[in-house]
Amino acid sequence: MTAMPTQSEITAALSRWLPPDAILFQPEDVRPFETDGLTAYRQLPYVVVLPRTEAEVQAVLRYCHEAGIPVVARGSGTGLSGGALPHATGVLMSMSRFMRILDIDPLARTARVQPGVRNLAISEAVAPFGLYYAPDPSSQIACSIGGNVAENSGGVHCLKYGLTVHNLVKVRAVTMAGELIELGCDALDAPGYDLLALMTGSEGLLGVLTEITVKLLPKPQKAQAILAAFDDIEKAGHAVANIIASGIIPAGLEMMDGPATRAAEAFVHASYPLEAEAILICESDGTPEEVLDEMARMKAILESSGAIEIRFSQDEAQRLKFWAGRKAAFPAVGRLSPDYYCIDGTIPRRTLAAVLKRIYEMSHEYGLEVCNVFHAGDGNLHPLILFDAAKPGEFERTEAYAGKILELCVEVGGTITGEHGVGVEKINQMCVQFRPDEISTFHAVKAAFDPEGLLNPGKAIPTLHRCAEMGRMHVHHNQTAYPELPRF
Amino acid sequence: MHTVLQSLMDQVRNAHASATPLRIRGGGSKGFWLHAQAPQELELRAYTGVVDYEPSELVITVRAGTPLAEVEALLAQQGQMLAFEPPHFGPTATLGGVIASGLSGPRRASAGSVRDFVLGVRIIDGLGRDLSFGGRVIKNVAGFDVSRLMVGALGSLGVITEVSLKVLPIPAFDVTLEWALQEAAAIVRMNEWGGQPFPVSATSWQNGRLRARLSGAEVAVRAAMHRLGGDAIPQGAAWWASLREQSAPCFETSRPLWRLAVKSTAPPLGLSGAILTEWGGAQRWIASDHAPAQLHKAARDAGGHALLFRGGNPAIPHLGMLHPVLGQIHRRLKHAFDPKGILNPGFPGNF
Ligand SMILES: Cc1cc2nc3c(=O)[nH]c(=O)nc-3n(C[C@H](O)[C@H](O)[C@H](O)COP(=O)(O)OP(=O)(O)OC[C@H]3O[C@@H](n4cnc5c(N)ncnc54)[C@H](O)[C@@H]3O)c2cc1C
């Protein structure tokens, strides 16, 4: 490969295909793109492009491919793992101008949209047909559907309605070489390998999404929520297991520990019980008959599981109030401390009590406070560590604590990320969860789409060398990993 | 390591070393569909057992050779099921075959397909390496989704040795309703239901009769029955089982059986030999001697694709034409997992 083109060479080349307002390179213009929702990591992009059409995306990628320039796609930049962190000498491709809803097919219950469309905007657009798009990340007013596909995002309703991967029909994407591909089709499956599933959650490493067709669901006629308080987090955990074991799949099943509950209450005044050590929010939706039936069954289970207080939402306003505190849990915790760090591990639910106990113990060991928010239905735990970045060493201590929590998740049979992705943040923990042969398989999958490794390089999948260097070795069946690599 | 797994790995390693193609065999119940041509067989039936099942986690992990019937019986004891209703096509069906074939039954359109319920897999790749992807938890986005990639890959990317699946409660109550209706109107009706909050869990149209299964809490099902009208039929469970297993009389044919997966709203395809429409209109079965090209075109025009399912020329499971760039990605993936092409040669076939 020849020498890396300079910034002015890149912008000059790109101006052949893009109008001047679609190419940014002045520091003040590219500054807004230097970070995503994980603000601890920052990097000014070399050049930012804002294409408007598929043809422009293809032209930019073809040029970058030939010139060997790394490209990072970006949606709304709400990602929490640094997935959209720019490359120092690369092009950041913002998909924010792909804002159109192209087609709504109410009978087939699908919507074809551009990747920059916000998650919530889809549900708003299809509401007149009595339909909605089910996956509802808490960031749904801001995050883009392209980012959702790239991260396989979930929401509080995904136990019943699935993650992004369960709610897609097909996508169009451009490979790093500039080739347009279509994955999935209008039928319920497509011929060949399931590349649509592979693309989903691939964190922008396999292609740039340019069009997405999502599945829509009929809006439930009714939704009602229960707020249940417990004086012991273990009892709350058992209540969750008992509800599921009874054959109910609630529309939502969320838990907050005492500290998170009190922070949320102070912020939004949802009238959460302050003495509780844990609260559960259980939602039922469906036809009025279904909801009535399910609410009665859930109430009985919560009572027999030792809830100290149970409230039913009496109307829509109260239901939303129950949720308000949960949905605002992150900013609420954010008020308690200058900074907070959100973790995203998943664990088998039965290990919840033991995992929380260990998290609290480590909180003392590291001298950092922690609040826990939990998608209890599907075992996705979000511990929020409070810290002050201005205090020397505190961020490093926070990262170390976070890393330990993720390793604990793997140890109990879970995973280092349930929905926020690996990005740059959890790349070291990938070495804990996967063995070298598995990691090299991931690299081979990447190479099947992008042999030169130019699309979002350095994210999601660690190099084997890095794993060895970090000394975070996956010990499997008591064998040491990487016997072939030197010890540092 | 389990001695059977060790032996399977050894066999694949040897096959890799000598570049000997392997025919991967579970229960043999779906061999009619795979048609792998290889001198040597890799027998999975001895690798059985439930590794982990905790009903309140909604997750089960089983070894690939475990009979499907056994797994379903175990789940049923706890009031749970594989919601995608995989066809058995015979008593010997194994879980590995379920994943590799990627076939789903009548509940597909409402509950999801095999791949929607796969959480993790353990495989032996074409180099004989024991690899695990995904996990035993419902939400997991660490690494590429290799687990779902295995679904429907017919063993061509790896020998599936273990799988973790999400399971769901068996609905408390089911009822099957029937209406006399022509195909075009039936297709519209099925799609309209999909957009309304009815607990429809399966649909079929065959020979002028539209049928729908409603599943859920009894009160909810009864309320929906009231609104939908139609006639409740007594033998509902047997009907859906006969579609799932393709034992219904309409499948008795000497002609090649084609599966056309199309956009659910596609109007009747106007092809002779149409025998059954399922999945809210999205899956249509045709028994005919039509030229393959004609069926591929009809399916493509209807937003989908056609597949020769049974009978006809069994040479290669016919994928139709993949876009050349997709074809290249397929070849590279195959090469990544199985560089010497020893695992179930024949799939994904020619493109
Ligand atoms: C307050 C808050 C709450 C959140 N709650 C949730 C939650 O409940 N559930 C959840 O899952 N997540 C949640 N998130 C995380 C985040 O919102 C999601 O990951 C979201 O999907 C990111 O979308 P985005 O458009 O902001 O993507 P970005 O952050 O811009 O990008 C994310 C990744 O996607 C890639 N990408 C973006 N667009 C494309 C494209 N067109 N083609 C290819 N790759 C692309 C990027 O390269 C990057 O790797 C939350 C974030 C915040 C800040």
Keywords:
heterodimer; A: 488 residues; alpha+beta; Uridine Diphospho-n-acetylenolpyruvylglucosamine Reductase, domain 2; Uridine Diphospho-n-acetylenolpyruvylglucosamine Reductase, domain 3; Alpha-Beta Plaits; 4 domains; eight-stranded antiparallel sheet; five-stranded antiparallel sheet; 19 strands; globular; disordered C terminus; B: 351 residues; 2 domains; 12 helices; 30% helix; binds flavin-adenine dinucleotide
Describe the structure.
The complex is a heterodimer of chains A (488) and B (351). Chain A is α+β, with helices and mostly antiparallel strands and 488 residues long. Chain A folds into four domains: 7-94, Uridine Diphospho-n-acetylenolpyruvylglucosamine Reductase, domain 2 (2-Layer Sandwich); 101-218, Uridine Diphospho-n-acetylenolpyruvylglucosamine Reductase, domain 3 (2-Layer Sandwich), CATH 3.30.465.10; 222-332, Alpha-Beta Plaits (2-Layer Sandwich), CATH 3.30.70.2190; 337-470, 2-Layer Sandwich (Alpha-Beta Plaits), CATH 3.30.70.2740. Chain A is built from 17 helices and 19 strands. Chain A has helices at 7-14, 27-30, 54-67, 119-126, 145-151, 158-161, 195-199, 233-245, 258-268, 288-304, 316-327, 329-334, 352-366, 394-411, 427-433, 436-449, 464-470; strands at residues 23-24, 47-49, 71-74, 91-94, 101-105, 110-113, 131-132, 168-174, 180-184, 208-215, 217-218, 222-230, 252-257, 278-286, 309-312, 339-342, 345-346, 370-375, 380-387. In chain A, a hairpin with a 5-residue loop joins strand 8 (168-174) and strand 9. The relative contact order of chain A is 0.11. The model of chain A is unreliable at 472-488 (pLDDT under 50). Chain B is α+β, with helices and mostly antiparallel strands and 351 residues long. Chain B folds into two domains: 3-169 and 331-337, Uridine Diphospho-n-acetylenolpyruvylglucosamine Reductase, domain 3 (2-Layer Sandwich), CATH 3.30.465.10; 173-310. Chain B has helices at 3-18, 31-34, 68-77, 95-101, 108-111, 114-117, 146-150, 183-194, 218-228, 236-244, 292-301, 324-337, and strands at 22-25, 40-43, 50-54, 59-63, 80-81, 118-124, 130-134, 159-166, 168-169, 173-180, 200-206, 209-216, 231-233, 257-261, 274-278, 283-287, 305-310. In chain B, the strands form four sheets. An eight-stranded antiparallel sheet of chain B has the order 13-10-12-11-15-16-14-17, with helices on both faces. A five-stranded antiparallel sheet of chain B has the order 3-4-8-6-7. A two-stranded parallel sheet of chain B has the order 1-2. Chain B starts with a helix and ends in a 14-residue tail after the last helix. The model of chain B has no long low-confidence stretch (mean pLDDT 94). Chains A and B meet through strand 9, helix 7, helix 8, helix 10 and helix 16 of A and strand 7, helix 7, strand 9, helix 8 and helix 9 of B. The site of flavin-adenine dinucleotide (FAD) has 36 residues of chain A, from strand 3, helix 5 and strand 10.
